[in-house]
């Protein structure tokens, strides 16, 4: 899609929206990955409508998040594609309020609707869109971002990255999150440069696709959370590396979660033969409340790394170790998240006294500048708390309180942790109260309101632990079923894998005097072994939770039966989830095993390699259980096609060339096939 194409489509969509809603009203954007989301987003800007990007619920994904966003934003319209609207009816048609709103299929809007479009005369103070913070379902907060916020932050990113129309970007991050939307859509449009987008599931299924795309296009800018680089090191084979040329990659930004020195070193070493330069790494820090980026760089400079004493850091003090000091001293390695970008201010502040901290002290990161949003939509109290902070000694302000802890040294910002309880895994925020609420009623023996969810560091990666109390009156509890219920509830409602589930006696989880869960105290008791445990389940202590099980490829895939595939899946799922094979029943839904989205995508990738044929990254989620998936897999298949291919827009059951029709249909993924058949049924 060219920028001329985007302009024409945005005008047409904008003209249609202006006929359906008044300027300033909200439109909920529910799209699968693709260009239609982008045309809809700019169509909203052209119409003066406030866009509300959101992650659409999947067939097996919980709907609580989208329900909460809908209630908070109260959109007048829902924008999607014609095919996805049909899928939505099937997947979450029970959300009656959502379907009471007019749904607009943006791909069905004719180009000539651009004739009725008129300039909404927005200015910099007008709202551009609401960015709902990921993971929040209990009380979601919509960050209000204006046109001025977007333009200023786009300028910062352009200058920090040295982006020009001659560069090339590659992004696989979800477009409904701030890094994917601002970095992968707004920034290229602001600079007038080209950008290639990949579906997130495609990257997770085969991380090499990301680096192959950078290599093929000679891209200059790309990046993602720390886990993405780690995944590339672990998953991309030596044979795949030999074909890569990463010498054009000038800015490899990394942020959205803790940046780890080990990941930087391992990636730089692994891909140096491919032309990757360590100084291309660009650690940065930001958050949706500041549009996107707050600090980063400088560009083409190796990341700043400090070793600090762990015991001092625990007391919010910074004691840097030099190379001559005893290696036996417990230390933590921190990576600098860059310099404060021009036009913005960062202060390190004592969260209690609201005074600026000394240089050798850790405090809360406060931010001020034109990128800072105007507040949370329809949340005045939360806005006052987060966006109106002032220094107690000088009354300087207002500042945005980020809830992150850190310090500054030699111009670099170092992030050390979280003041809030938000859990960050694979770059996504998860609110512990949401996870705890999901677990509350997962099993009849659970004591409601007495659950603690928190993250622990395992192999230098944040993993989720859930501690749940058992009701005293339940003397005989099926602990295995209760443990499985926790994993299943978290997987089904949050698409998240649990590292450990701990069942404890009543009265074990520490509470405040007002009855609030003291998660940090519970975490310390868990790590120190002070919990009185009734039963627990824990995944293997590996970087990705995957268990290495040697299962040789079938000698003759054509002769495989459904039973063969069922046995393979049982063994793989049991090994990955640390369950006995006898606990894996072929008719049990996948999510009830506690499989999160990454589990499903990676098992699909292993299955693809074992069978020697192409599968959709969401193949497992497109079938309810092992038996159904196995039956589908033994159906006759044509020779696999190695490259992803979008469905043909001209394809029709009325095609005059049946051989061509059969060829196109057989090359479809299961998602493409479903969308195509729904389209044809609608015509009938």
Characterise this structure:
- There is one protein chain.
- The protein has 684 residues and is α/β, with parallel strands linked by helices.
- Among the domains are: 1-122, Rossmann fold (3-Layer(aba) Sandwich); 293-418, Luciferase, Domain 3 (Luciferase, domain 3, Roll), CATH 2.30.38.10; 431-538, GMP Synthetase, Chain A, domain 3 (2-Layer Sandwich), CATH 3.30.300.30; 557-633, ACP-like (Non-ribosomal Peptide Synthetase Peptidyl Carrier Protein, Chain A, Orthogonal Bundle).
- Helix content is 34%, strand content 19%.
- Strands 8-7-9-10-11-12-15 form a seven-stranded mixed sheet, with helices on both faces.
- Helix 4 packs across helix 22 (670-683) and helix 10 crosses helix 12 (261-271).
- It is globular.
- It starts with a helix and ends with a helix.
- The model is unreliable at 542-555 and 638-650 (pLDDT under 50).
Strand order of the largest sheet: 8-7-9-10-11-12-15
Percent of residues in helical segments? 25-40%
User: Main beta sheet: strand number and arrangement?
Assistant: 7 strands, mixed
What would you say the CATH architecture of the domain at 293-418 is? Roll
Name of the level-1 CATH class of the domain at 293-418: Mainly Beta
Q: What Rg, in angstroms, do the CA atoms define?
A: 25 Å
Sheet/helix structural class: alpha/beta
What is the CATH superfamily classification of the domain at 293-418? Luciferase, Domain 3
Low-confidence stretches: 542-555, 638-650
Mean pLDDT: 86
Number of helices: 22
| Approximate strand percentage | 15-25%
Span between N and C termini?
31 Å
Tally of extended strands? 25
Shape: globular
CATH topology of the domain at 293-418: Luciferase, domain 3
